[in-house]
Design brief:
The chain is α+β, with helices and mostly antiparallel strands. The protein has three helices and nine strands. The strands form three sheets. The chain has a four-stranded mixed beta sheet, with helices on one face. The chain has a three-stranded antiparallel beta sheet with strand order 3-2-9, with no helix packed on it. The chain has a two-stranded antiparallel ribbon with strand order 5-8.
């Protein structure tokens, strides 16, 4: 029998009991997922953004929307927050639990080198007040604690911590 005549196995039936269990599972174990990126320029400087609604400088990024991949999320967040258009796939550095924001919050951190993007025109907007590249030894005083910890991990070659 050739492959063209082979029948597909039947799909499992989604019973009412199974659907209710899946609904209960989703409601009882909510999870949020975000993506952030460490973007470096040719001089080794690091891109940080300052939001209009939160204090301090942080990596650009945002929440993953339904039916969106992590890479799609970080791609559009970089464009929106800093005019950075990815030309290559970002490299995943680590996934962190961010309980300070929400008990089920997780953040994926990507690394983006100067060969991985192009810059476009960008202007401050309602969400992002500023986007700037900083030398590693000239970071702003009001950098967020999580951002500072991630930069230390990267600079020292440490494995990613479990917590943001």
């Amino acid at each position: 029998m050739d492959g063209a005549n082979r029948q597909k196995p039947p799909r499992p039936r989604r019973t009412l009991k199974r659907r209710l269990f899946q609904l209960w599972f989703r409601l009882s174990r909510p999870l949020t997922l975000g993506a952030r990126a460490v973007v470096r320029d040719e001089a080794g400087r690091i891109l940080l953004v300052r939001h209009t609604y939160a204090p301090g400088w942080a990596f650009p990024g945002g929440g993953v929307e339904r039916h969106e991949t992590l890479e799609e999320c970080i791609g559009h967040e970089l464009v929106e927050e800093a005019g950075i258009v990815l030309t290559a796939r970002p490299r995943l550095f680590g996934v962190y639990c961010n309980r300070r924001v929400f008990p089920g919050d997780h953040v994926a951190l990507f690394l983006v080198g100067p060969e991985d993007y192009q810059r476009t025109d960008w202007q401050p907007n309602r969400e992002i007040a500023q986007a700037r590249f900083f030398a590693p030894d000239e970071l702003p005083d009001d950098i967020t604690a999580g951002t500072a910890r991630r930069l230390e991990e990267i600079a020292k070659g440490l494995p990613p911590a479990a917590e943001w």
